[in-house]
Specification:
516 residues, two-stranded antiparallel sheet, globular, single chain, mainly alpha, 6 strands
Length: 516
C-alpha cells in the first residue's frame, strides 16, 4: 500500500509547484481542478489494480514466476537443438564482428572506462578482460556490427541481446557458484521466451518496425530475464529486474543503417544485465510494469496495441515459443529483407545467362524490384556499408553483378564500383499490395526489362535460411567456421563447436566464455 500513497501525493505536489504563477486567474484555477481530478482518476485506477493484484496474479507477476520457476526438464529436444544452433551462430557472427570498425570504436570506449572487476572475456581479443557490463556491451555490438545475427518472428534479433549478458555473468560468479551448461542453456531460453511472449502482445510487433528497434525493447527485457534466471533471483527480484529493464529500453529506428544501430544490441544486453544486478542488490521498481493500466503506461508505452496475457507457470511441461517458431539464420551480413531480393536477383541472373549466353549489364534497360513498403531499407544509392546492408537496390544489383552477396560485398571497393552505380541508375521500385512488410509473409521479385523489350522475372518466396527453409547443420557449421576463423585458429573453432554441441554436460558454463 506504500505505492498507493506515493501515487496519490504526486499530482498534488505538481499542482502546488504551479500555484505561484499559473493559478491566480479563475480560468487557471478551474483548469487546474480538472487536471487534478483527472490525475486522481488515473491514480485511482492504478491503486485499484495494485489492491486487486494482492488477490489475483498479474501479468508481471506471472512472468516473474515463470522466470523463477522454469526448470531444465521443460526444455524439449527441439528447443535444445534450436537454441544451441542460435548460440553457435551468435558466437560466430560476434567473432567476425570483432573485426569491424564499429566494434573497435566501442571497444576503445570500454577500455577507457575504469572498472575494478575486469573478469569477462571479449570476442576475438584473447587475454583482454572487461567488467561484466562492458564485456556484454562490447560483445553485443560485435554480434550486430554486420547485421549478420539471427532474426525471429515477430521481428527481432533474439540471440545477440541475451548471449553476451550470460557469457559475462557466467565469468562474474565465484567458483563455488558457477552455473553449469544446462543452467546456462535454460537461462538463454528464458531470455528468448520472454522476448517472444512480449512481442506477441502486439500485432504491431509482427511487422517490420517503424518506431523502435525491437531488440532495444524486448531484447533488454530478455537479457534481464535470462540474467535473473542465471543468478537464481527470487520471484520478487525477477519482477523488479523486468521493471528496471523497461526503464532502460528503447532506441529509435532512425539510427538503423548507421554505426549506432549495433549499439542497440550492445545496450540491450548490457542494460538487461545491469537491471538484474540492480534487482539482486535490492532495487525496486513497478510491480505492474507488464500490465496494461489505463493512463499509466508501463511496457505498453512501446506499442500502440498492447494486450498482455499471463504467462503460465510451467508444471510438468512447458511449450517454449522456439518449439513452434524457429529463427532465420542469415547467409550474408545484411538486413533479413535483403535475403529475399538477393535470391530473386540470383534467379533472374541465371535466366539472363540462359537467355543470352552470358550476363551483360548492357542488355538491361531497367531493373524492377517488387518489394514491401519499408522506408529504412529502401535506399536507392547507399553511401556507406551500413546503408548498403539496408538497401534493397544495392543488394539486388550486387547479386546481379556477382551472382552472390558476401562479406566483401560491403567494402568500399565493391560499394563504389562504376558498373554497380550504372545498374543502380536503372532500378525502379514497385510495392504490390500483397507484398507486406512482414518476415513471415513478404516476398522478393526482380524483373529485368531488356533492351529488346523482353522481360525476365525472378521471384523468391522463402530463402534458404528462413525458418520455413532452415539451414542444414552443414551450412550452419560452414558459416560458423568461416566467421570464427577470422580471429581464431582452427583448433579453437572446432573446440567451440564441440562445447556448444555438448553444452548440457558442461560442468562450468564460464568455460564457453573463456574459449572466445
Amino acid at each position: 500500500m506504500k505505492h498507493i500513497s506515493l501515487m496519490h501525493e504526486l499530482p498534488a505536489m505538481k499542482i502546488l509547484q504551479l500555484s505561484g504563477s499559473k493559478l491566480s486567474s479563475p480560468y487557471h484555477f478551474l483548469r487546474s481542478q480538472k487536471v487534478l481530478a483527472a490525475s486522481r482518476q488515473v491514480h485511482k485506477i492504478s491503486a485499484q489494480v495494485l489492491e486487486s493484484s494482492a488477490a489475483e496474479e498479474t501479468v508481471t507477476s506471472s512472468f516473474a514466476s515463470f522466470i523463477h520457476g522454469v526448470r531444465p526438464e521443460h526444455l524439449s529436444e527441439v528447443v535444445r537443438h534450436r537454441s544451441k544452433r542460435m548460440i553457435l551462430d551468435s558466437i560466430g557472427v560476434g567473432l567476425v564482428g570483432s573485426t569491424t570498425r564499429v566494434f573497435n570504436i566501442a571497444l576503445r570506449y570500454c577500455q577507457q572506462l575504469y572498472a575494478s572487476n575486469a573478469v569477462s572475456s571479449v570476442y576475438g581479443r584473447k587475454g583482454l578482460k572487461l567488467s561484466p557490463a562492458l564485456a556484454a556491451f562490447a560483445n553485443g555490438v560485435a554480434a550486430h556490427s554486420m547485421d549478420f545475427d539471427d532474426t525471429w518472428h515477430p521481428a527481432t534479433h533474439p540471440s545477440g541481446a541475451v548471449l553476451p549478458a550470460l557469457l559475462a555473468a557466467s565469468q562474474m560468479l565465484p567458483p563455488s557458484s558457477k552455473p553449469n551448461g544446462l543452467d546456462f542453456l535454460l537461462a538463454f531460453n528464458v531470455g528468448i521466451e520472454v522476448q517472444g511472449r512480449l512481442m506477441r502482445f502486439s500485432t504491431e510487433a509482427h511487422n517490420i518496425p517503424k518506431r523502435f528497434h525491437p531488440p532495444s525493447v524486448v531484447g533488454t527485457m530478455g537479457s534481464a530475464a535470462a540474467t535473473a534466471k542465471l543468478l537464481s533471483l527470487n520471484v520478487t527480484q525477477c519482477a523488479h529486474a523486468l521493471a528496471i529493464a523497461a526503464s532502460l529500453a528503447g532506441a529509435p529506428m532512425a539510427n538503423a543503417a548507421t554505426q549506432a544501430k549495433p549499439l542497440h544490441i550492445g545496450n540491450a544486453t548490457r542494460l538487461g544485465l545491469e537491471a538484474a544486478l540492480l534487482a539482486a542488490r535490492g532495487m525496486e521498481a513497478s510491480p505492474l510494469i507488464l500490465d496494461d493500466i489505463p493512463g499509466c503506461s508501463g511496457f505498453s508505452a512501446f506499442y500502440g496495441d498492447y494486450q498482455p496475457k499471463l504467462l503460465p507457470l510451467p508444471a510438468n511441461s512447458h511449450e517454449f515459443l522456439l518449439e513452434k517458431q524457429d529463427v532465420a539464420f542469415k547467409r550474408f551480413p545484411a538486413h533479413l529483407g535483403m535475403h529475399w531480393i538477393v535470391d530473386a536477383a540470383a534467379s533472374v541472373r541465371n535466366l539472363l545467362i540462359n537467355y543470352s549466353g552470358s550476363f551483360s549489364p548492357s542488355l538491361i534497360r531497367a531493373i524492377l524490384l517488387r518489394i514491401p513498403v519499408s522506408k529504412y531499407i529502401n535506399r536507392p544509392f547507399p553511401e556507406s556499408e551500413h546503408q548498403a546492408r539496408h538497401s534493397f537496390q544495392f543488394n539486388a544489383c550486387t547479386a546481379l553483378l556477382d551472382g552472390e552477396v558476401g562479406l566483401n560485398s560491403f567494402t568500399d571497393g565493391c560499394l563504389h564500383r562504376q558498373e554497380l552505380t550504372e545498374l543502380l541508375d536503372k532500378v525502379l521500385v514497385e510495392h504490390p499490395e500483397d507484398n507486406v512488410a512482414n518476415f513471415d509473409k513478404m516476398y522478393g521479385e526482380v524483373a529485368l526489362v531488356l533492351e529488346n523489350g523482353d522481360v525476365l522475372t525472378g521471384r523468391c518466396d522463402t530463402f534458404y535460411g528462413h525458418w520455413r527453409k532452415p539451414l542444414s547443420r552443414e551450412s550452419l557449421l560452414k558459416k560458423f567456421q568461416s566467421n570464427a576463423s577470422h580471429v581464431l585458429p582452427e583448433d579453437k573453432v572446432n573446440s567451440i563447436i564441440t562445447t556448444v554441441d555438448n553444452l548440457e554436460n558442461l560442468p562450468d558454463s564460464s568455460q564457453l566464455a573463456s574459449s572466445l
